[in-house]
Write a structure and sequence with these properties.
single chain; about 450 residues; Aminopeptidase; 7-stranded mixed beta sheet; two-stranded antiparallel ribbon; 15 helices; about 50% helix
Length: about 450
């Protein structure tokens, strides 16, 4: 795959002008070879609702299954009872009449059995073939590893009860790798209020200097490269006092296919974004063997899949990587809004497009429950971590250009207020320890 995506065009000729408009605190001090190893990426994913589905959707599914089972059992019971009754001698009945009645009931039972079998085949077709479950990158994570990453105080925190938190990862997957050995350049926490379906999105900036969950401190997007979603989730849980258990990862083509299946998404484009968007498109079109349509004007317009993915990758404008993370959230919000206006059959088509490029801990039942209840979800707020007033940027020795939570403890308090409306949250002793370590490692580079 030759050049990396942030070398999508002759950047050397634009380097001076692009840097002059960037935040001096967030200099890109990496060497050219380092830049080849880093990634620009995007993210997409429909927020999902595991605990809420367990509390409502999954329960309703299981209730339906029990109801269906009860109904089938009732039918079979009735058939058996009828057959037995037909075999009993009745006063005044002839042997020929009893035989005829037995034959009729026997035929009815066979027909009922065939009907039930056909229903089961139809359901199996709907679930396993029409939605194409074979393409879903379902992964069973080590629950013990995830459990150990959740602080005991967090697990017992009553303010967080009633929320489901999902990690959304976007990876550079030109070679199709979604599991690890690729940095998660999009990291978004989707927090769902199970009572009302309200969703809040919080990007964790990919270059944030954190504990990778193994006492190695560097850019947090390295956790996914080292240990896949298990380590990336553990990193989020440990540093942010979170209780994340599930994730969804998507690659380049996945987002492109989803947006196309949705019929495009409305996005406001600025003049400064047009040239970068088109150059990213040109590179991806070659890599993915797709055609592309240049964006020619600013303003609100419907972007197709390739255009939306390219938009998500722009960072060479004012705001740098912080603005890029905001663009990613904008596309995610636009995707959900578009999906809410679609029928279930249309959403199945969207799911088919996404599953081949998706790697997730969610099982099929949960995914189908999501599709059926998508109209109940509303993204009510979004932001980024570390919070703007409590972050700094700088080159942290050999770790390169990093985003630093000036005080991790204060940022974690802010995060819990933002996601869970917990203004009295007290961080764990572990977070206090990580906060002190980050200050020790970075303070001399920031002053």
């Amino acid at each position: 795959m030759g050049n990396r995506d942030d070398e999508y065009y002759d950047r050397d000729s634009r380097r001076t002008s692009s840097r002059s408009s960037r935040d001096d605190r967030y200099r890109d001090d990496r060497s050219r070879n380092d830049r080849r190893r880093d990634y620009d990426d995007y993210d997409e994913d429909r927020p999902v609702r595991r605990r809420s589905s367990e509390g409502s959707s999954s329960r309703s599914s299981s209730d339906r299954r029990r109801s269906d089972s009860d109904g089938r059992n009732g039918s079979y019971g009735h058939g058996s009872s009828g057959s037995r009754q037909g075999g009993r001698p009745r006063s005044g009945g002839s042997r020929g009449g009893k035989k005829k009645k037995n034959q009729t009931l026997g035929i009815a039972l066979v027909v009922a059995e065939i009907a039930v079998a056909l229903v089961l085949i139809f359901v199996a077709y709907q679930v396993f073939f029409k939605v194409d479950v074979t393409k879903v990158g379902k992964v069973n994570m080590n629950e013990e590893v995830i459990s150990q990453s959740i602080n005991e105080g967090v697990a017992d925190n009553q303010q967080m009860v009633g929320y489901t938190n999902i990690a959304l990862f976007g990876v550079d997957s030109r070679e199709g790798e979604l599991t690890k050995k690729t940095r998660s350049d999009t990291i978004i926490i989707a927090s769902i209020n199970n009572a009302n379906g309200d969703i809040k999105l919080c990007s964790v900036y990919r270059d944030t200097y954190l504990n990778l969950s193994n006492d190695e401190y560097t850019k947090c997007n390295a956790a996914y490269a080292e240990g896949g979603p298990e380590q990336a989730i553990s990193m989020l849980n440990m540093n942010l006092d979170m209780d994340i258990e599930d994730f969804i990862t998507i690659g380049f083509r996945g987002l492109t296919d989803v947006v196309n299946a949705l019929g495009g998404v409305p996005i406001e484009i600025t003049d400064a974004e047009i040239s970068h968007l088109n150059n990213y498109q040109a590179t991806m079109a070659t890599e993915l063997k797709m055609d592309y349509t240049p964006v020619t004007s600013a303003g609100l317009q419907t972007l197709n899949g390739l255009q939306a993915t390219a938009y998500c990758r722009i960072r060479y404008t004012a705001g740098d990587d912080f603005k890029r993370a905001e663009r990613q959230r904008n596309v995610l919000i636009a995707c959900l809004d578009k999906a809410k206006g679609m029928s279930y059959s249309q959403l199945e088509d969207v799911a088919n497009k996404a599953f081949g490029e998706t790697y997730t801990s969610l099982d099929l039942e949960e995914i189908l429950a999501l599709l059926k209840n998508i109209a109940n979800y509303e993204i009510v707020d979004n932001n980024g971590f570390p919070e703007e007033s409590m972050r700094a940027t700088g080159t942290i020795g050999k770790k390169g250009s990093c985003v630093v939570a000036v005080d991790l403890e204060s940022n974690v308090k802010w995060l819990h207020q933002f996601l869970f409306e917990d203004s009295e949250y007290t961080v764990s002793d572990d977070v206090k320890k990580y906060s002190d370590k980050i200050k020790s490692d970075t303070s001399s580079y920031l002053n």
